Amino acid sequence: MTTDTRTHSVPDTVAAESTAWRRLDDRIPLRLMLAVAVLWAVSLYVVFSLAPAPPAEDPSAAAVLVGLGFELSLLATIAGLAVLRRWGLLASAAGGVVFLVGAGLCSLGGHTGGWLVAQYVTGAAILGVSRAAFRRF
Fold first, then answer.
1. Which of 9, 25, 86, 123 is the most buried (most CB within 10 A)?
2. pLDDT in tens, 36-60
3. Considering the entire predicted model, what is its pTM?
4. What is the predicted pLDDT for the residue at 8?
5. What is 73-98 written as a DSSP string?
């Protein structure tokens, strides 16, 4: 009786896919980081310069949660982009989603105006650019 002592090799396609798989802590190019940072800076400038004064009454719980989510995603984006890591792009995309959710809540609350359109456009741009960059790099 003989035993098979051959080692089982991983198929070439599986090995190629595992080496092509990118991790969240992989580096991103400096130019990409600068482009995403400029997109964020311009978007925030446009939206906040067009935004009307907040109402005098206390904000709703949903508004507080969206604001907190936006601030946390912005901090994570800044940290991730500062160290040139892919997870910064993921945080940026999450910030774009929170931006869009905030715009949606404003729409449901009866707000209208150019600042709301700017918030939708910039939120979609941040989400789209961050997602495309995350998938590519």
1. 123
2. 999 999 999 999 898 887 777 878 8
3. 0.80
4. 52
5. HHHHHHHHHHTTBHHHHHHHHHHHHH
Measured CA to CA, the distance from residue 68 to residue 130 in angstroms comes to 20
Let me know: does 63 contact 105? Beta carbons within 8 Å: yes
- Mean pLDDT, all residues of the chain: 86
At residue 27, what are phi and psi to the nearest 5 degrees? -75, 150
Contacts of 88 (CB under 8 A, 6+ apart): 28, 33, 36, 76, 77, 78, 79, 80, 81, 82
The 8-class DSSP code of residue 110 comes to: T
Q: Look up residue 120 and give its two tokens.
A: 């939708």
Q: Measured between alpha carbons, how far is residue 87 from residues 58, 69, 74, 117 in Å?
A: 34, 16, 12, 28
For the chain, give the longest Cα–Cα distance. Answer: 87
Percentage, residues of the chain above pLDDT 90: 59
Sign, CA dihedral 109-114-117-119, equals negative
Distances, alpha carbon 40 to alpha carbons 45, 46, 125, in Å: 8, 10, 9
